[in-house]
TrEMBL record:
This is ABC transporter permease. Residues 81-270 form the ABC transmembrane type-1 domain. Pfam families: BPD_transp_1, OppC_N. The lineage of its organism: Bacteria, Bacillati, Actinomycetota, Actinomycetes, Streptosporangiales. Belongs to the binding-protein-dependent transport system permease family. It comes from Nonomuraea longispora. PROSITE patterns: ABC_TM1.
Length: 284
């Protein structure tokens, strides 16, 4: 799999750029406290709404300008990267684990377990995930932990359905029949033989899900229901800048560009992984 990914990456120039963008975003997220030029919450009303460095009226040391409270936009975007990556990765991991467990159990045991879990999935699909997350966080209050839990526990359905379909096919294969014949129990078969064979589709779905979780986090933060107000996020920057689109467009535009570039890069990388995981698509 890693060799096939590298081979596909060499042939796909768009994916090379996407991986580079992701690497840059991860670097900024990890080292934001070291490379950010200013404290993201440091206010200076004398410098409020200063434009980016190439425009007249800009302030030295504030490359992307300042917001309504004189806070450095670049520093807030850098620190917002940490929140977006943390929520995206943690929520995706949680939903992947929950969905994989439900999918494997449903596909292998079938019967009432499969019916119960799939009907639960149908019920959850009847409600838009972002609306369900919005309602829960509105009750629990803004919190990074609550956001991760809510997004993670509302995003398991896609994993469960794909994994269940894979397991339904795998459970009839010869190696599973042989494992039963030598006395392996159901949990042993699932852990030793089924789980290793669903890693590729899980990785593909997870890559695309990270982008969706980042957008969901930005949406909730935009509505004021994400993390606490003192934590800079891309969504809160968008919310702060919506009232100043004419006079201080840079507040919303640069944070929106960060969301767009990150999610686009992740989606392009996810498409690459999907093509590698699907031999027919990869050879086209």
């Amino acid at each position: 799999m890693p060799t096939a990914v590298l081979r596909a990456l060499r042939r796909n120039h768009a994916a090379k750029v996407a991986v580079g963008v992701i690497a840059l975003v991860v670097f900024v997220g990890l080292f934001a406290p070291l490379i950010a030029p200013h404290d993201p919450n440091l206010q200076n009303l004398e410098l409020k709404l200063r434009p980016p460095f190439w425009m007249s009226g800009s302030e030295s040391g504030y490359l992307l300008g300042t917001d309504k409270l004189g806070r450095d936009v670049l520093s807030r975007i850098m620190y917002g990267t940490r929140v977006s990556l943390l929520v995206g990765l943690a929520a995706t991991l949680l939903s992947g684990v929950v969905g994989a467990v439900i999918g494997v159990v449903s596909g292998y045991y079938r019967g009432w377990r499969e019916q119960a879990f799939m009907r639960l999935a149908d019920v959850q699909l009847a409600f838009p995930s972002i609306l369900l997350a919005l309602a829960i966080i509105a009750v629990l209050g803004p919190s990074l932990l609550f956001m991760i839990l809510v997004l993670g526990l509302t995003g398991w359905v896609a994993y469960a359905r794909v994994v269940r379909a894979e397991v339904l096919s795998l459970r009839e294969r010869e190696f599973v029949t042989a494992a039963r014949a030598i006395g392996d129990t159901g949990p042993q078969i699932m852990v030793r033989h089924l789980v290793p064979n669903i890693v590729a589709p899980l990785a593909t779905i997870g890559t695309l899900q990270v982008a969706a979780m980042i957008v969901a986090e930005a949406s909730l933060s935009y509505l004021g229901l994400g993390v606490p107000p003192d934590v800079p996020t891309w969504g809160s920057l968008l919310a702060d800048g919506q009232l100043y689109l004419r006079s201080a467009w840079w507040i919303a535009v640069f944070s929106g560009a960060a969301i767009m570039m990150t999610t686009l890069a992740i989606n392009v990388t996810g498409d690459l992984l999907r093509d590698v995981a699907d031999p027919k698509a990869y050879t086209r």
